[in-house]
What we know:
The chain has helices at 219-222, 392-406; strands at 2-4, 10-12, 23-32, 37-40, 48-54, 57-62, 69-73, 79-83, 90-99, 102-111, 116-120, 125-130, 139-144, 151-155, 164-167, 177-179, 187-192, 199-204, 208-213, 223-228, 233-238, 249-253, 257-261, 267-272, 277-280, 284-286, 290-295, 304-308, 314-319, 329-335, 343-349, 354-359, 363-368, 384-386. With 415 residues, the chain is mainly beta. The protein has a single domain (7-386), classed as 7 Propeller (Methylamine Dehydrogenase, Chain H). The strands form nine sheets. Strands 3-30-29-28-27 form a five-stranded mixed beta sheet, with no helix packed on it. A four-stranded antiparallel beta sheet has the order 4-33-32-31, with no helix packed on it. β32 (354-359) and β33 form a beta hairpin. The two termini are 30 Å apart. Pfam families: WD40 (PF00400). Keywords: Repeat, WD repeat. It comes from Mycena chlorophos (Agaric fungus).
Amino acid sequence: MLEQTSRHQVTCKFSTPTSMSVLEASPSYSATSTPLRSTTLSSDGAYVLSIARLPGAYAASASAPSNRIHLFDQQTLQPILALAGHQSGTTSLQTINSIANVSRPSLVSSGLDGSIQVWDERTNSYSIKMTNLGNTRGLLCADVSADGLTVVGGTQLQGEDAHIIYWDPRQPAVPLRTHSSTHSDDITVVRFSPHTPNLLLSASTDGLISTSTATEDDEDEAVVHVGFWGCSVSQAGWIYSPANAPVKIWGHSDMETFSTWSEELDLRQSQDIRDPSLHNHALYEWHTDYLIGCHSSATSPDLKVFVGSHQGDFALLSNADFSVVGAPWQIQHSWSTGHSDVVRSLHWDEDNSVIVTGGEDSKINIWPGPSFEAATPASDDAMDVDSPPRTDASSSSRKRDRDQDESRGGKRARR
């Protein structure tokens, strides 16, 4: 946690809550074994890195060698068009509803070429391209403010600096401001708060999760809170929650640890997301190998945690209380036999009650969304909860896969 002693002096104190939570079967547990629709991204073996939704279409960003952004018909998954993407790899992709005073759903992507691009599928090209000419740094992440008038990107480490860069999309050629001391390594996450305008969440491989004021030019004044997790942070996000909720932020590390934080960045939970497993050979069993991502929205505010297996299956987990160390987990739903390799990307299309996934097998699948209707509880006698130990071999495998992934233009591997 960051304790602010004055506007110019902050100190970082931290603790490391750990827990060995059990995994239980939800009374409404259900399973899906066949996707509704399926397609293949390409014939060159590209990974599906990100998925976003446009009206009538789903967009998917591909890893090297193509680095393209593909659009597929929402109903049939037939290809519509392919956007060029970024020359050196597309690192993030999202849909925004308004930008630069133009109100229409648009795709926004960041890339290792140092640019953030707003795409217009009607012209098969970008309509806005934000760069930092003369000081190009590869961008690993990006986000757009709710009013569409501020765009932010997080850079790779270059020399001794990693930058948070802000643009006004109406003047894309020159950044508004740059914060260069918030983080000291690759910046993997930038996310505007859904609750507080101009409050930015950032995370980095330096082990820090920070919040700062996006409109403040003076970086010493901009930083609001800092939490030190002590591990490389690969994902993080805000949780839609009431004002007095004890948990507002979630995080994920390269070593598959999962965490939750208060808005002041007090660490509440920190544990290996792969512990524990659920074995019930009569009905179902589940063992987590990696976290895919988390989902929280204004219409579905409770944090939903999506995890995957090496076999290409994935599941939805929930936690009884994300603010309590050791609170039990539940498996809500599982999906299987659609992918033959690691699931790299997932988009929950709440409007259409479907989940869209992309994998390292180049496949894109559409699945029925989870059902939270009450079902007959499984008997306690049929359920066996297990927390298997981790070995050094698994860590070596993840390091090898991460090195291979970097050569493909992706941020990290998930094995």
